[in-house]
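Changelog note: in this version the structure field was regenerated for every chain. One regenerated record is shown below for reference.
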Amino acid sequence: MFGQDRLGEDKRFEKEEKTSLEEAAAKLEEIASALRTQGKFTEKNENHQITISPSREVNMLLEYVKKGKNHKTGFYLEWHD
């Protein structure tokens, strides 16, 4: 995408799936547990597998957007190498 290229972003991985709220909460707990105990977590989609290893200091962003009847939230960790 033009904007991402211009900003120097390089999207490495994306995964989207429909699931129950309970399954989504369990996935968040799994990621949190792996980050807490190992400092990293591994995720897979149809084409790739990626290990995400944040640094010890992160910036955490929680985003919530409502547009009409649609609601969306995102949890982001941002860090420097």
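Spot check on this record: Residues 21-38 form the longest helix (18 residues). The mean pLDDT is 90.
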